[in-house]
Amino acid sequence: MPHHEPYDPSHSFLMECRHAISFSQNPLIIGYLTVKTLFSTVGLGLCVVLFLRETDLRKTLHFNARLIIVVHFLSVMVNSLAQATTGAYDLLRFTVLTSTGKCSVPLLSHKYAVFVNVPVILSQNMDSLTLVALGIERTVATVLAKNYEKKKHRLISLSLLMISSLVSIWWIVRFFQKGHSKHAEHNLYSMITVPSEVSGDNRLNSLFLALLEIVILVIFVVLLAFNLKLKRAARRVSAPLAMKYQVEENLASVTVLLSMAFVQVLIYTVTFGLNFLLGHHHDLDHENESSLLFTNVSVIYHVALPIIWLIQARQKRKSVSRQAQSRIGSLAQDETKTHFDILKDLFHENAHKIGR
């Protein structure tokens, strides 16, 4: 029988305190927390502005796609807010705040460190799962292009969102079960808002999300190619008007979604790589716990998403402006031609009278 040392809370406190002080003196950790907080805050602000102002771009989408896009944006905003809050709190603890207790750096309750990860994990999974839902919805819109616009098919988006939510909730339940099995009574304190027992889950989760995003990317590439082929068929005079509209909507939306999926593939591939390289064991010891800080680069997506949509909205406005100018120019040419024809007729009529 292996001999287990009796648990000493004071020893655990001193270890956490010592490592927290070393964190506060590490410029890399302070720099990362600053960047994380800045990106999350800027991304949240951009998403809110985009969500409130650029409503015309969403209105061009079918109800199903619009509903899923709204949920996707909300999950990104929740993730931004959660990461900005945890990043700012960790940064303040290591730079500004002082403790009235025995440790000069305020320590976290371990239960709090686990709890604040719930919205991060939940919203991060929803970011990817809603993109999967959009891929499935756009596939249905492509296959049923002739009558998809006429029929609302609202159960499609609601069903896909329900499945995405259930998968995310299952992952959270699994996370808590795993944390409970790690003898949480021995983990009274934590120096960062990323508890060490989530290292293995982070690695598995990031691998799952990276593979999922690759599948999504392939789906959107295939949809783009297929809709370009449908566009040629939709140009025929005999093609239904609803089909022409749906194909144009599919092309516009898939172009944006392809960019979103590409960015997420890069983010979760890098996250998995960092998890794999920095976390060699399923559970990190206290010396290596700091590496958990550097394994989540999803804050990049918080800024990339609104930028992608702002660019698309700007291109949409330019396209509408060009079309309007083209119509005005065409009308002006027609009116000028009509005026010349009238003058020509008058000239010929007067010339005929003079000749007589």
From TrEMBL:
One Pfam match, by short name? 7TM_GPCR_Srab
Q: How does it sit in the membrane?
A: Multi-pass membrane protein
Bilayer-crossing residues are: 29-51, 63-82, 112-134, 155-173, 207-230, 251-271, 291-311
Where does the UniProt annotation locate this protein? Answer: Membrane
Q: Which GO terms describe its cellular component?
A: membrane
Q: Which GO terms describe its molecular function?
A: transmembrane signaling receptor activity
Q: Name one GO biological process term.
A: sensory perception of chemical stimulus
Under Gene3D superfamilies, the record lists:
Rhodopsin 7-helix transmembrane proteins
Q: Any idea which UniProt keywords this protein has? A: Membrane, Transmembrane, Transmembrane helix
Give the family this protein belongs to, as stated in its UniProt record: Belongs to the nematode receptor-like protein srb family.
Q: Could you identify this protein by its name?
A: G_PROTEIN_RECEP_F1_2 domain-containing protein
Q: Which organism is it from?
A: Steinernema glaseri
